[in-house]
Amino acid sequence: MVSPTFDPVSARAALLEERTRLLGEVDETITAPDPMTYGSQAAAASQVFAQQRDLALRDRATQHLELVDAALARLDEGTFGLCETCRRPIAAERLEALPWAAQCINCARGASARR
């Protein structure tokens, strides 16, 4: 069972707020670079760089959105707050900081060490 300070209503509210923020990031329009005119290679390169940066940020927001959606599903299933690896409770402090956390800190450390 999750720590006694765990509040599913607050967790859901935080997750829904984060989900709304991420949906805004994912839905932002990414503009294509302007057609290159003679002598504007530096400007074109800057535009391409900005577009690639925006695409990478969108990909990151999409991945984060998947984590948030998975956490909301765990709330609905009644498994929120249990580590997906060891099945032990995730510390309430961790869930307050990262409500989408799917692993306890020990398992998350182990997973990042293996990468």
How does this structure look, described?
The chain is mostly helical and 115 residues long. It has helices spanning 8-27, 41-77, 92-97, 105-114. Helix 1 (8-27) packs antiparallel against helix 2 (41-77). The longest helix is centred in the middle third of the chain and has 37 residues, at 41-77.
Quick summary of this structure?
The protein contains four helices and no strands. The chain has 115 residues and is mainly α.
Class computed from helices, strands and strand pairing: mainly alpha
Radius of gyration: 19 Å
| Total helical elements | 4
| Strand-residue proportion | under 5%
**Distance N terminus to C terminus?**
29 Å
Global morphology: elongated
**Oligomeric state of the chains?**
single chain
Mean pLDDT score, rounded?
A: 87
Helical residue percent? 55-70%
Write the layout of secondary structure elements.
Elements: H1 8-27, H2 41-77, H3 92-97, H4 105-114
Keywords:
mainly alpha, 63% helix
